[in-house]
TrEMBL record:
CDD domains: CDP-ME_synthetase. It comes from Streptomyces gamaensis. It comes from the Bacteria. Pathway: Isoprenoid biosynthesis; isopentenyl diphosphate biosynthesis via DXP pathway; isopentenyl diphosphate from 1-deoxy-D-xylulose 5-phosphate: step 2/6. The record marks R177, K235 as: Positions MEP for the nucleophilic attack. GO terms for molecular function: 2-C-methyl-D-erythritol 4-phosphate cytidylyltransferase activity. It catalyses: 2-C-methyl-D-erythritol 4-phosphate + CTP + H(+) = 4-CDP-2-C-methyl-D-erythritol + diphosphate. Keywords: Isoprene biosynthesis, Nucleotidyltransferase, Transferase. This is 2-C-methyl-D-erythritol 4-phosphate cytidylyltransferase.
Amino acid sequence: MSDRAFAGASARTAAVIPAAGRGTRLGPGTPKALRALNGTPMLVHAVRAMAASRAVTLVVVVAPPDGAAEVRTLLDAYPLTGPDRAELLVVPGGASRQESVRLGLKALPEDVGTVLVHDAARPLVPVDVVDAVVAAVRGGAPAVVPALPLADTVKQIAPRPDAAPGTPEPVVGTPERALLRAVQTPQGFDRGTLDAAHEQFAGQHGEEGATDDAGLVERLGTPVVLVPGHEEAFKVTRPLDLVLAEAVLARRRANDGF
Ligand SMILES: Nc1ccn([C@@H]2O[C@H](COP(=O)(O)OP(=O)(O)OP(=O)(O)O)[C@@H](O)[C@H]2O)c(=O)n1
Ligand SMILES: C[C@](O)(CO)[C@H](O)COP(=O)(O)O
């Protein structure tokens, strides 16, 4: 189904939030999306970030496979408010991010024409980024990704699957940094394009699949474009990211009472 099939105002925009990961790099404990940031679960921040866009009328949360009921109960304790509040669905996820997104897409109703895929682990993305991604898809781009230039220089290494962790790694190249971008979410898609990509590559994960949804679309040969991301859309991956996220929230509260 594509935006064009529902030309005009009838094509809805939905956000799929993969939230089924454990958060291994964050360390042992509650699944990452359910951990609190300044007292509110990370997932609630992420849902609110998508619902903050007036374009988004449906949010599909993809929960840990055995935790959908628990996640539904949690989200019911933090109801969305306002006259334009988005509808909320919770579905069970899979063993990889890619599989979780695919299961989220299957839950979308027919009248959704534009889909955002947003990591629960990027709870602080500003609404301006969400709106810019939606606008670019509605403007005709089949796949849109927020991205930032890199601060660090990047080195390429040769694959060494049997090397012990910490062993010095020979460098094989230095890509030109000015031509690289670090990509974020929400990534936005024409619904038919994203469905086709996920169906074509279902069952291929990790390096055989893609680490982001746009990567699957690229493999179809469909063009992908970048729009400016935002430093506050960073992914909470390691313990220090929790400190940064809580500092950002504290600054927002001090600045505008958010
Ligand atoms: N089976 C999975 C794995 C990941 N995710 C989601 O994909 C997003 C990005 O993944 P990442 O930050 O890597 O989360 P984890 O996989 O939980 O992290 P880690 O690799 O440290 O375990 C997160 O919102 C995570 O919940 C998912 O829905 N289903
Ligand atoms: C989708 C993503 O957030 C874009 O940067 C990223 O690729 C997810 O990777 P992860 O290793 O599953 O966190």
